[in-house]
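This protein record is not my work; I was only asked to verify it. Take the sequence as given and treat only the tokens as open to question. I have pasted the whole thing underneath without changing anything:
***
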Amino acid sequence: MAVRIESYIDDLFNYLDIYKNRQSEFKTEAFLQTYNGVSAVFNTLRQQRDEAVQIDLYFLDKIKATPLADSDLREITIQVLITYFESEADTDGQSNKAFSYCRGLRTVKQDVPYFENYLMPLLLKERSLKDNFKLNLFFLDEIARYINKFGRPFNPHLTPEEFAAKNSPLKLLELARRRQQLGKDLILDRNSLEFDLKRLGVFNKVSEKNKLIAQYLDEWKYLEKSDFLSKLKNWLSEFGGKIGGAFTSFKYFSLVITQRKAAYLFYSLIIILFLLLAVYIPSKWRENSQTKFEQLQKRASEIPSGSGR
């Protein structure tokens, strides 16, 4: 078995080299099959400790041969794969040398915080994995699966407010975890968090901040698509609600105008209002004066005819 696993490992690292140096020759599907072929034997190695130690040392030699950060795919692949290896295959602490080496290179040592705070932002960087969405989706699922299996307990009752408090990478990770735990049709369940978030327009707002997240949400059918007029109507309605709400309470109004964007908007509206009044009032005054002058002329012309009767 060991020879076969080593062959898969050789192929995997060969694909990592191809990705870095000969991108046009990189085959995504073949890479993923090789990755899955390597990880499929990890549980078996729990009972085959001598082979597990041998594979661990083989991993270590292959990892040390090239800097881990040589490419984003190399770093993500090795850190995720070797963490699974340590969690699934190492039962006695004798086959964790490759993992210990990789963990020593991390800025965050614990697995879950490292995945959440380093690998997830790396996945969502612009041009991440050379815009290979299939690779990106695969590793998002791998990270979500690891945290669901070995990380903190999953919270199926997350509220929209709790979801909103997370940063963009963690929002995406949370959605991926939920899809794995609760199913992929949550958007159709009127009692689900996903249904509420779509109804409230949260997904559309989140998608505006990151193109890759937008691609995920579109892939999962989480985005509310509408035409330009509908979007304009919704924006005006939301804007009107905010303006109306600001004037319902002096304290709230005071708070609103201390915010930079709101203050700019408020003072801009005030300036525009005064400019309009500066044009409208003189115009109306002239119009009113002209009307009164014409009425006075008319009365003056009627006086002689009235006195001659």
Residues 260-307 form the longest helix (48 residues). The mean pLDDT is 85. Residues 2-219 form one domain.
